[in-house]
């Protein structure tokens, strides 16, 4: 978000000359016209001023005479990628940002969407599994290193995190670790930092957290399975965790089960209801988590623990455990059918 966006706020009665001076001084090529403190009523660009001058409008006239009084705006919940797409589709360089009540809360430029601030939050990727269901493809290659679209899935996953400013990576390795280490090294060739976590015996997703170094950054950590293909906005997931003051957040997917028969409900021999070919919907674990640092510090070292059990344990002691539904593309590449599907899907994801 533009840090000095408040400096380009003007009222409808501000003169064109004054607006021109503001645009020139702030070098944003745009001014936002509001009523009161926060009601968006228009936007004016240097192009609008130029056209007004050519039409003979005096510089002493109010900016309301030349402003765009039906500007495109965007909700603050939209991701940087979504804002970029919107601006490219509308062929605009600046976009006022509003909250759910329509209050002006910021300004985003197309350039902002191309420049990503670095995030200090660590990312922990589980890449030590045997990939048994994908044999013989995994006989000599760890599953996350199988190529989808000509590139290892793990590399695609890391690049997606990089798009949101993440650069501190911890990778859990066990099966054929040299394949991963030889490809990524310390991460410097990929513009990131990598620390490898060697599991001598598989500890489960939760247990692997206990192997992370004590020097781990104190910011919440994102954890993900290394065989997931997704274009999830990881920054949005992390921001939710922080805003909600969650201790542990689990990303979930909406999953449907369609029963092709009539389902009979009843007590004993008595039929109480017949539901014809019902659809049941559930939230299922998507293998993506955000874990606060104090949770990691509380774990016993080197003990097997899966993530559902970790969430249950922490919930029982009063920790705040939340679910975050994801609606973006997501595929757990665990079977041959999934692997084949990923080969065609990768080209439509923009990752």
UniProtKB/TrEMBL annotation:
Q: What Gene3D superfamilies does the record tag this protein with?
A: CBS-domain, Spore Coat Polysaccharide Biosynthesis Protein SpsA, Chain A
The keyword Signal is assigned to this record: no
Q: Which UniProt keywords apply?
A: CBS domain
- Where in this chain does the record put each CBS domain? 1-59, 67-123
Pfam families given in the database record: CBS (PF00571), NTP_transferase (PF00483)
Say if the entry is tagged with keyword Protein transport.
Answer: no
Report the superkingdom from the record: Bacteria
Q: What is this protein called?
A: CBS domain-containing protein
Species the sequence originates in = Pseudoalteromonas arctica
**What is the organism lineage in this UniProt record?**
Bacteria, Pseudomonadati, Pseudomonadota, Gammaproteobacteria, Alteromonadales
């Amino acid at each position: 978000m533009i840090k000095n966006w408040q400096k380009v706020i003007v009222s409808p009665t501000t003169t064109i000359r004054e607006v021109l001076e503001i645009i020139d001084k702030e070098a944003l090529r745009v001014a936002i016209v509001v009523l009161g403190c926060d009601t968006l009523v228009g936007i004016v660009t240097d192009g609008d001023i130029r056209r007004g001058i050519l039409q003979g409008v005096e510089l002493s006239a109010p900016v309301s005479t030349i402003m765009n009084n039906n500007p495109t705006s965007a909700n603050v919940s939209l991701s940087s990628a979504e804002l970029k797409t919107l601006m490219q589709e509308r062929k605009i360089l600046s976009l006022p940002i509003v909250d759910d009540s329509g209050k002006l809360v910021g300004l985003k430029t197309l350039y902002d969407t191309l420049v990503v601030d670095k995030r200090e939050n660590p990312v922990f990727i589980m890449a030590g599994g045997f990939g048994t269901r994908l044999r013989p493809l995994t006989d000599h290659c760890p599953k996350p290193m199988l190529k989808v679209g000509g590139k290892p899935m793990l590399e695609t996953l890391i690049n997606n995190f990089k798009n949101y400013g993440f650069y501190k990576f911890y990778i859990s390795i066990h099966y054929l670790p040299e394949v991963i280490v030889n490809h990524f090294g310390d991460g410097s060739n990929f513009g990131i930092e990598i620390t490898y976590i060697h599991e001598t015996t598989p500890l489960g997703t939760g247990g692997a957290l206990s192997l992370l170094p004590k020097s781990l950054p104190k910011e919440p950590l994102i954890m993900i399975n290394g065989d997931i293909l997704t274009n999830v906005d990881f920054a949005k997931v992390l921001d939710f965790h922080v805003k909600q003051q969650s201790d542990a957040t689990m990303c979930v997917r909406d999953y449907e089960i369609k029963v092709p028969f009539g389902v009979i409900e009843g007590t004993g021999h008595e039929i109480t209801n017949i539901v014809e070919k019902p659809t049941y919907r559930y939230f299922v674990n998507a293998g993506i988590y955000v874990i606060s640092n104090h949770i990691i510090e509380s774990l016993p070292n080197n003990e097997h623990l899966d993530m559902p059990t970790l969430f249950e344990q922490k919930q029982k002691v009063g920790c705040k455990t939340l679910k975050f539904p994801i609606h973006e593309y997501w595929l757990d590449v665990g079977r041959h059918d999934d692997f084949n599907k990923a080969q065609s899907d990768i080209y439509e994801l923009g990752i």
